[in-house]
Design goal:
seven-stranded mixed β-sheet, alpha/beta, single chain, 445 residues, two-stranded parallel ribbon
Amino acid sequence: MNFRAFALGTALSLTLAASFGAGFGVGVAQAEDSNYVPLLTYRTGAFAGSGIHIANGMNDYLQMLNERDGGIGGVKIAIEECETGYDSQKGIECYEATKGKGALVYNPYSTGITLQVIPKAAVDKIPVLSMGYGLSAAAVGNTFPWVYNVPVTYWDGASVIIKYIAEQEGGLDKLKGKKIGYIFLDAGFGREPIPLLEQLAKDYGFELVQYPVPAKEMQNQASQWLNVRRDRPDYMVMWGWGAMNPTAVKEAVKTRFPMEKFIAAWWSAGEEDAGAGGEAAKGFKTLNFSGVGTDFKALGDIKTLVVDAGKSQTNPETFGGALYNRGVLNSVIIAEAIRTAQEKTGKKVLTGEDMRIGLEALDLTEARLQEIGLAGFAHPMKVTCEDHAGSHPVFIQEWDGKKWVKATDWIEPMKEQVRPLLEAAAKDYAEKNAPWPVRTEACPN
């Protein structure tokens, strides 16, 4: 069974067991001796093909901690999914329906939902973890003490792609006169990197040509790719999600765009995304910041204690895929922030305010990754009061015609160019949303 067929079949069969949590490994409410983690997921709708894998990875890791360790710090995790369909209104409904249950943190898994939730976080005292998505400016912790986009922002990721292209051309100065196409989902998600890309185009003299793809046209991109064929860009960059990704890969193959010059964001990294082009998609590249494959001890524990035990919705054939592993990393960050919050506060059962402390003091070292059975699964990451993303390195993976393989070492973002723009964007956001609360939260010791 291929990834996409299973994803779509699962989406149709689920309707997510009502809106709240009647699935495998899903709790329904917070017990007095548990820590409650709501998961805003989408197993139905146009983005289900990607969302299912993320949801499974998030759920399975937390469930594994319950099965193997009895939770975190001796306290079980109460897990509850709420189906959003990747719809902002439904996402807010899920938020409002779950926040009163003792929610520790929200993972919106949609830039649109994230933008809606950000103003609520400081009021409700519940942090938002938008791992590698959402509002890039939220990396500025002094402006956004309740929002965390560790390990990297979209602006960082876009800078890595431009840096990588420059390396292929012989240096940043060789970008002058080049034409770089940008095909993107025409929503908050796809528009988010544009300010950074436009600035880098000015700085280095390349032409940025934009190809927006409306959500309703994700599976009909013929006109965009006809324009690509007409414009003949030297490279194509993609910010796609859901059904947009496999369609774009198929169209790129059809128009004979050189796949080795087609590079996408980490959310275009699903096996079914590249697999839509099969052998002809060989050379297609995406960013990544989470483990490739299943050769990690913690994933073995998930397989034995959760998947094989029938406590998961994961099809064994899709276990350990790129997006599944991304979901696992998301829950690793949640779990390590809970552990850190317990250490910092001396409490076992936490509140959202405690969780904010744990996120802001997060220090996931190489030694800790090895200790939890995930050595080499991610780059060590650290959050500070000033920097809630950390601008950590990412790597590029390449489709070999059948599977993803790691194509580069870790690549540092262009921090000197990105950070001043993030700070300016954070200032602009606060001014446009005045009166924006001045930070009063103390930095963790």
